[in-house]
Amino acid sequence: MVGLRPDSGSTRTMPVPLLKADQVTKIYGDGQPVLILDRVSLELSEGEFVALLGPSGCGKSTLLRILAGLVPPSRGQVLVRGEPLRGVNPAVAMVFQTFALFPWLTVLGNVELGLLARGIPRWSREQRAREMVELVGLKGFETAYPRELSGGMRQRVGFARALAVGPEVLLMDEPFSALDVLTAENLRREFFELWVGRRLPTRAVLMVTHNIDEAAALADRIVILGANPARVRLELPGLPPDLRQVRGPERAALVDVVYRVMTSPAAETLVSAVGQPEVPAEAPPVYQMLPHVSLGQVAGLVEQVRARGGREDLYRLAEDLGLEAGDLLPVVEAADLLDLVEVVEGDVLLTEAGRKLAVADPEGRRSILRRQLLDRVELIRDLMEALQASPRHRILAQVFRSRLEQVFSRAEAGRQLETAIAWARYVGLLGHDPRLDVVFLPGWGQAGGD
C-alpha cells in the first residue's frame, strides 16, 4: 500500500490515503445560506473501489467536485497523499453522466484533450489515446464523431479520455445512469472486469450513484450519505469480487440492507460485533423505482410480444413500433417489474403471467394486473394495507408522498406516487380525489360513504 514502509524500529507507518475529504463543509448562498455538506470525512486508499450513495440532491456530486478541486469547500480541506489540495486536483480525472464530448472532435481528438492540456507531445499523445480507445472497446472508431456513436459508445469515449491521463483516482458521477438498461449493464460488467483484472491505469475509483444494486455489483466499500445537510451515515463493506457480478443471495442481502438504511433516515443503525449492520425492525418498507408509463402501454407490449411468438429482440421490436429503444425501455422495465416479461440477452420473453394476460378478456386482464400489482409493487401493497386499516378507508396521499421523499427528490416522490395511484386506479384497487389529495377504497370516496 502507498506509504507503507518500515521505519528504523519494528513498527510500520500507516498507509497514506490517496485522497481524503477532511471535515468538508459546503454552504451555498449569502443572504439565505444553505448548508449542503456538513463535516463530511471520506478516505480513498489504493486499490479501493468506493461507491457513494445518498438521496437525490443530497450533495453527492458536490462532494465529488470538491474532491476534484473544481469547487472549493466552505470549511475543512481535501488532502492528496496527505498534502492539502490547492486548486484543481492533478491526481484525479472525472467521468460525467452526460458524456461531455466535443462534437467537432473525433473519438481520438476527444480522448487526447486531457493529454493536450498537460503538454504531452503529439506523437506520444496519439499513441496513448489509441491505447485507451482500444482498452474501452472502440478500436476502429478513432475517426468517428460523437454524433455517429450510440450512447454507450460515447460514454466509452468519456472513460477513455479520463483514463488517458493515468489518474491516481478516477471519479465517476453516475456514469451509467444516462444509458438504457441493457447498455448500462454491459458497460458496468466490462468496466468491472477491467478493474479487477488490473487493466485500468488508475489506483482507485470513487463512484457517485443513486443505484443501490449498481453499488453492490461494483464496490469494495459503500458509503451512505444522509441529506439536508449531507453527513456520512454509514460505511458498509462490499462483497468479495467473485460475488458482486452474480445476482445471488449475498448481493440481494446487501442491497436489502442498504435500502433499509436509506429508507430509514431517522433511525439509528446498529453494527454487530462481526461488523454486519442491523437495522431496526420498524424501518419502513423498500419502495422500487416505478417507470412512469401506463398499464395500457404495458398490456400493449405484452400483446406485441405474443404476436411475435412470445419472444422478440428488444431493438427490433422498438424499430417495428417506430420507437427509439430508449422510449420502449421504461415500458419493458414496468412489464418486468410486474413479472409479465423478462429480458434475456437483449430479447423480451413473455412469462407465464404475461402469456395469460395476452389471451385474457378485459376483466381477466384487470384481474391478472391487480394480482401482479399487489404481489410485486411494495408501494401499492402498502397503500392498500393502509386504506384497509383506516376506519374511513381513506388517507391523505401526502402521508405516502412524505415517505417517498426520504429516498427520492420531492419532485420524483410526487411522480412515483402519481404513477402508483394511476396503476392502482387502472385495475380498480382504489380511487383518488385530487382536490382533497385523498386516496380511498372504491365506494368510500364521498363524504357519506363511511
What does it look like?
- With 450 residues, the protein is of the alpha+beta class.
- 40% of the residues lie in helices and 18% in strands.
- It is built from 16 helices and 18 strands.
- The protein has a six-stranded mixed sheet, sandwiched between helices. Strands 2-1-4-5 form a four-stranded antiparallel sheet, covered by helices on one side.
- Strand 14 and strand 15 form a beta hairpin.
- Helix 2 packs across helix 3 and helix 9 crosses helix 12.
- The longest helix is centred in the C-terminal third of the chain and has 17 residues.
- The protein is globular.
- The N terminus and C terminus are likely disordered.
Tally the helices: 16
Spatial order of the strands forming the largest sheet: 6-7-8-3-9-10
Helical percent range?
40-55%
Percent of residues in beta strands: 15-25%
User: How far from one another are the termini?
Assistant: 69 Å
Largest sheet, strands/sense/barrel:
6 strands, mixed
Q: Output the structural class.
A: alpha+beta
Structure summary, number of beta strands: 18
Q: What oligomeric state do these chains adopt?
A: single chain
User: What is the mean predicted local confidence, pLDDT?
Assistant: 85
Which outline best applies? globular
Instruction: Pick out the low-confidence regions.
Output: 1-12, 265-285, 446-450
If you compute it from the alpha carbons, what radius of gyration comes out, rounded to the nearest whole angstrom? 25 Å
Question: How are the SSEs ordered, and which strands pair?
Answer:
Elements: E1 19-28, E2 34-44, E3 49-53, H1 60-67, E4 75-80, E5 83-84, E6 92-95, H2 107-117, H3 122-135, H4 151-164, E7 169-173, H5 181-196, E8 204-208, H6 212-218, E9 221-225, E10 232-237, H7 241-244, H8 249-262, E11 270-271, E12 277-278, H9 295-307, E13 311-313, H10 314-320, H11 325-337, E14 341-344, E15 347-350, H12 352-359, H13 362-376, H14 378-389, E16 394-396, H15 397-404, H16 410-426, E17 431-433, E18 438-440
Parallel strand pairs: 3-8, 3-9, 6-7, 7-8
Antiparallel strand pairs: 1-2, 1-4, 4-5, 9-10, 11-12, 13-15, 14-15, 16-18, 17-18
Helix pairs in contact: 2-3, 2-4, 3-4, 6-8, 9-11, 9-12, 10-11, 12-13, 15-16
